[in-house]
Amino acid sequence: xxxxxxxxxxxxxxxxxxxxxxxxxxxxxxxxxxxxxxxxxxxxxxxxxxxxxxxxxxxxxxxxxxxxxxxxxxxxxxxxxxxxxxxxxxxxxxxxxxxxxxxxxxxxxxxxxxxxxxxxxxxxxxxxxxxxxxxxxxxxxxxxxxxxxxxxxxxxxxxxxxxxxxxxxxxxxxxxxxxxxxxxxxxxxxxxxxxxxxxxxxxxxxxxxxxxxxxxxxxxxxxxxxxxxxxxxxxxxxxxxxxxxxxxxxxxxxxxxxxxxxxxxxxxxxxxxxxxxxxxxxxxxxxxxxxxxxxxxxxxxxxxxxxxxxxxxxxxxxxxxxxxxxxxxxxxxxxxxxxxxxxxxxxxxxxxxxxxxxxxxxxxxxxxxxxxxxxxxxxxxxxxxxxxxxxxxxxxxxxxxxxxxxxxxxxxxxxxxxxxxxxxxxxxxxxxxxxxxxxxxxxxxxxxxxxxxxxxxxxxxxxxxxxxxxxxxxxxxxxxxxxxxxxxxxxxxxxxxxxxxxxxxxxxxxxxxxxxxxxxxxxxxxxxxxxxxxxxxxxxxxxxxxxxxxxxxxxxxxxxxxxxxxxxxxxxxxxxxxxxxxxxxxxxxxxxxxxxxxxxxxxxxxxxxx
Length: 610
Description:
Blueprint: H1 10-21, H2 27-41, H3 46-59, H4 66-75, E1 88-90, H5 99-121, H6 142-145, E2 151-153, E3 160-162, E4 174-179, E5 182-187, E6 189-190, E7 193-194, H7 197-213, H8 228-238, H9 242-253, E8 257-261, H10 270-278, E9 296-301, E10 306-310, H11 317-334, E11 352-353, H12 360-379, E12 380-387, H13 393-397, H14 402-418, E13 424-429, E14 438-440, H15 446-455, H16 464-486, H17 491-504, H18 511-514, H19 516-521, E15 526-530, E16 538-540, E17 549-555, E18 560-567, H20 575-602
Parallel strand pairs: 4-8, 8-9, 13-15, 15-17
Antiparallel strand pairs: 1-10, 1-16, 2-3, 4-5, 5-11, 6-7, 9-10, 12-18, 13-14, 17-18
Helix pairs in contact: 1-2, 3-17, 5-7, 5-11, 8-12, 14-15, 14-16, 14-20, 15-16, 16-20
């Protein structure tokens, strides 16, 4: 049994919070915040009282922050899932030479996913153990078991994440296939037997033929791409009709969604592939060929583009990546084998097309959602950079953490462009604890601020040796933040818990939580995440604030793949400029490391001068 997530000591969190605030605000603002923090943390003050109540509350919960964190991070957010919340993932490009190749690949993909689901259903997935810092500790596996059993239902003020109770409802035996914006029920298990790939191929062929021959269908899937409250209202209207209730029920209970897309363009670059997986390129392209509330949506286009988009609330990227690696290995393993017709299950029933009856009110919501998602997609500024000068092997050769190296490169990049640091989010897994999800590694540290200023300084008083010493201190601070978060001692979840406890007992909100710097530290202008894969697959997502950047990176031995995003209508952010500055920052950091190493070897007793 894994331990419960601890509640960190109050003073430790308050000291850590002040360290986070310091590089983000002016001296006067910092002094004001410091006084409020000291008032909150004084003996017998609000902080001690809330801490005591939080400790009591934690005794009654498997994971004291889980529900609060889920609401704060996902379920109370009203922004559309598309771009703002749901990451896309690009698989290695496939070569399809004839129309049936898309169906063959999709059949094999379904088979590979069901192969993985058998392991999940038996609870036979090998336990993950921590790597890197705190290596060897067992990790909570619950996120894996939510991949095919969860569904996000829109609510007027708060969404719900539901998992059908298998003791009440039978396990689902169908998937939903979306083709030409039409939804079909495909049974993948019939009479307790999984369909063979040959049978899946034939059923997919039937779906393709039916979708092509069918009447023009309203793009109902676009409803899931809009504002969450508006979609909740539309869903209430849909549920008034029994035909719609049946269709929604079949989608909500399915194992996963398979989107059979139409190719977007001949030029399958990293960027065009990323856009197709992340948002589908708009209402006149593949965006209506989605149902964004379903946790797992796999995408196979007729031009060989393939990947997925997933609803983020049930799981972190690590569980999705593990599933994808299993899937791609399965496809690779059986890819060269011809699809033999296994013993067919007698005459298979035709896949059922889902029907919809749309009222004038629903048509209004559909129009609003279409306009909204098209605006969001047009406003998205996504850049993919394969940095090939070095990969994670270079920081390792310098006895540096590759993740810490990249995080500080992102800090240097932002400082080069804006001459300041901003609140930064990097997820740190808390899976060492029951139902653990993440806490935040705060890369915009005091030490990082000192280092980036030295890197951008032209004064002769600052030597490369000084820059290197400051770099090492910044890396150490980053490592300490990381370890603290991994051990369940991060500040973000704890401060959230104290704030939620104040709301729970209906006391006036303490000044520490209404202070402007508190709001500033929780607006993550840099939203970053390392999502490593062993194959040529990568993940991408949008910024989490209007003036922010999304920065997802995948470090390989000899290159680093970055997916960088911002919004075009914001004058403060610009993905192309950020990409150029990031490339220069990484070059500068390598140059600094190599120069100092060389000069220390050549002149071991002399400080290196610029």
